[in-house]
Amino acid sequence: MFDTPGIAEAMQSYVLETAPVLALRLDANQRVTAANAQARQILRSGAVGRPLAEQIVDFTHSFELSALINQGSTAVHRLTLSTASGMPETLCFRFFPLPDGTLALGSLDLKEQQQLRDEVLGLNRELNDLSRLLHQANAELRELNQVKNRFIGMAAHDLRKPVGVIMTYSEFVLDEAGDRLDDEQRGFLRTSLAAAVGMKRLIDNFLDVSVIESGQLRVERSRTDVGQIVEGVLPLVRLLAARKKIELHTEAGDDNRPLLVDVAKLQQVLGNLLGNAIEHSKPGQRVWLTAHRDDAELVFSVRDQGPGIAPEDQTKLFAPFARAGTRKTAGERSVGLGLAIARLVVAAHGGRLWVESVPGLGSTFFVSLPIAPGGDHA
Amino acid sequence: MSQVFSSEDVYRRYLDGLLSNNRQQCRECFEQWLAADAELGTLYENLVQRSLYEVGDLWERGRISVATEHLATAINESLLNLTYPRLFAQARIGKTAVIASTANEYHQLGAKMVADIFELHGWRGYFLGANTPLRDLLDLIREKGPDAVALSLTVYFNLDSLLQTAVAIRSEFPTVPILVGGQAFRWGGRDRVEGLPEVRCLASLSDLEAWLKDERNHV
User: Cβ(B115)–Cβ(B126) under 8 Å?
Assistant: First the structure.
């Protein structure tokens, strides 16, 4: 069938110029003396003239090309070649003896290539499907988070009023009728009042979280200065410090250059940091509030002499409901929202909040607010 | 002077990238379209669907290899990821759809694009991948209780499988609308699926968009 004149020439031409087959002629020393078009394209430059064995990737260090050639032309050998692309390529070779050397013919395993392609495409599909699921799940979680925020916001809003009533009437009874009560009854009322104050703080935190997370936090800037901010924040914590016999120091009160910030929210942040510092300190220890301003930024810092925070706790300190491994010294309660809220408020000002702490040597929290080129926009 | 966006030019460059396996060129075109065109629906129809159909035609006419056709599909599918941050951020209307390719149907991109068009119109579009076993599909329908089920068919010879799926869904869920569509219906079969109660055949993504708008008006 294939002995018709012209067929051999056609096949030879096809193999040499077009076919996806590597054809290499080797001399008696297995040096490549000629290569077809496909081989010249795939093999590294300079392949012709070099021994074929040097172009074969071999990790066994016992590779013997002669042994394969001597097995004759019916044996198929899977060999991996270094290629011009830098990627090794595995081909199935057969070696045909010639009077003065060997003809090596190699081809790709098509079945293996097809399997590989199908696997890669299948993996790509799976990856894309998972990516879609991930985006969809994220969208659903965002929706659920919004529902949660609305729920917390509504619940906190509705709870705030009755708690306020409990506080007002407890204070009223203690003020107006305290002298007609015995010690035990006054103790009950004070406990109720303290519990209501704690509950109000918790509710306020929940409201803050729901407002911030729903993207409704508004920074209402007004003109002020560092001195006014510090003056406003100290009364919030002075009583707490006095009760725990903590010395409160400020190195910030004399800077009256103008600033444009949300005073109430910044005081809330500093009050929270000072409150934490006091609650983590022992009687007789000191807490410092300092402010430093240059042309680019205003940095407040709150330093304590408390137990410090372990490095592994420092990274998670600002996440909602996170609690450091350290304990407050008088067993004060916390749900772990204060720092999360503080960081979001500072971020809304375009600033940063971070901590530096060494266990056993206390902690310092920093609030950095950028100063606009105009000078007063923090 | 800013360059004027020409959807035809970008489409031609995108197609050229698909046919030469140039993923980077395709990505640039896709991003250019995303940046220029506010409507994701037109991107799906005029860039992705159009290129898929043209690549399919070229393969059928023997102008490109099956490997190139597969790679073009893979590039298109992976680039859809770029739309997801916008797609899934659409306001929800409280409706869900389950979308699947039927058993033996290994082409899934059409079904995925249908699921995405549902998302674009505020539905949740739950997508099951290629060759979905009927049992898995019925399980998901039970779990999600969808307002519509959409079945995609690319290969005409799988029409019987799609019909069996539609009948099985209809027998367990008598009222849920079933939508069918896909490239396979270019060869016919529309009358066979529309013979079933509450089954609609939608020829293109724009037909699906029209159906979704119509549904919204009926809410």
Answer: yes
- What is residue B88's DSSP assignment? T
In this complex, which of B77, B85, B126 lies closest to A128 when CB atoms are compared? B77
* Intra-chain end-to-end CA distance of chain B, in Å: 46
Written as one string, the DSSP assignment of B22-62 is -HHHHHHHHHHHHHH-S-HHHHIIIIIIHHHHHHHHHHHTT
Angle of the B109-120 helix axis to the B66-79 helix axis, nearest 10: 20
Tell me the residue type at B49.
Q
CA-based nearest distance B88→chain A, Å = 6
The CA distance from A314 to B3, in Å, is 49
Q: Which residues are CB-neighbours of A196 under 8 A, at least 6 positions away? A: A163, A166, A167, A170
**Neighbouring C-beta atoms of residue B18, cutoff 10 Å:** 28
* Minimal-distance CA residue of chain B relative to A131: B81
Binary contact (B88, A135; C-beta < 8 A):
yes
Angstrom distance (rounded) from CA A115 to CA A60: 27
- Residue B2 binned pLDDT confidence (cut-offs 50, 70, 90): very low
Q: Give the gap in angstroms from C-alpha A83 to the nearest C-alpha of chain B.
A: 21
Ordered structural domains, chain A, with CATH: 7-108 (3.30.450.20), 113-213 (1.10.287), 222-370 (3.30.565.10)
Contacting residues of B for A116, CB less than 8 Å apart: none
| pTM for this entry | 0.67
- Residue range of the domain that includes B28: 7-86
Q: Minimal Cα–Cα distance from B98 to chain A, Å?
A: 13
ipTM score here? 0.82
A290 close to A261: Cβ distance less than 8 angstroms: no
Q: What is the largest CA-CA distance in chain B?
A: 61
Q: In this predicted model, what pLDDT tens digit does every residue of A195-217 receive, in sequence order?
A: 888 888 888 888 887 777 777 77
Across-strand partners of A298? Answer: A293, A369
Structure tokens at B205: 């993504």
DSSP conformation class of A31? B
Chain B CB contacts of A129 below 8 Å: 108, 112, 127, 129
What are the structure tokens assigned to A281, written together?
């300190």
CATH number of domain containing B208: 3.40.50.280
Residue A72 is encoded by which pair of tokens?
Answer: 């004759």
Choose the closest CB to A124 out of B78, B119, B124: B78
